[in-house]
Amino acid sequence: MAHVTAAERRPQLIAAAIELMAREGVAAGSTRAIAAELGVAQATVHYTFGTKADLYRAVLESLTEGLISGVQEGVRNATSLEEALGATAEVFWADVCERPELNLLWLELIAFALRRPELCEVVHKYQQDITNIAVTALVDTAQRTGLQYATPPKELTRFLLAGLDGLCMGVLMEGGSGAPGAHTRRALDQLIAATVDLAHEGTGRGA
What we know:
2 domains, 9 helices, single chain
C-alpha cells in the first residue's frame, strides 16, 4: 500500500470528521470513530493532529473558511450597498441550503468550543474575520459610490450578522437539519432590506 503523508491525510481526516459529526453529532466525534469513518488506524489521527483538540480546531477552521472566502468573493466587485448585501445573502443561502446538516454541526461546535480555552480562539477569530470583511466591504462600497451611511458600518455589520445568526437558529428550531423553506428566504430578503434602510436612513438612497 502506498504511503500517505500527514499533509495528504490531514484533509481526508477533516472531511471524515465533518461527515461523521454532521450525521451523528459532535459527541460522536471520537478519534476512534473518525478513524473508522476513513478506514484508518486510530493512531493515524493522533499522528496527524497530535490531539483531539487540534483536530476539532481544524474542523472549525474548515467550516469557516468556505463561508469567509465566499463572502469575500461576493462583495469584492459590488457597485452598490444593495449589491454587496445581496451577494452576502446569496452566500448565506447557499451555505444553509446545500448542506443544511452542517448548520447544526456548526452551532454544536460553537457551543463545544466556547467551553474550551484551547478552541474558543478559533470562534473568536472567525467572528472577528467575518466582521472585518463586512465592515471593509461597506467602507469600500461607500468610497466607490459616494454613499454616506446614516449608521456606522460596524453597527450595520452587527445588525446583519445578528440577523443571519438568528435565521440559522430559526431554521434549526423549526425543521431540524432540513433545508430552509420559502419563508426563510423571505425573512432573509427582509433582513437585507432592513439593513439597507438602516444604512440609508435620513440620507436618501443613492445620495
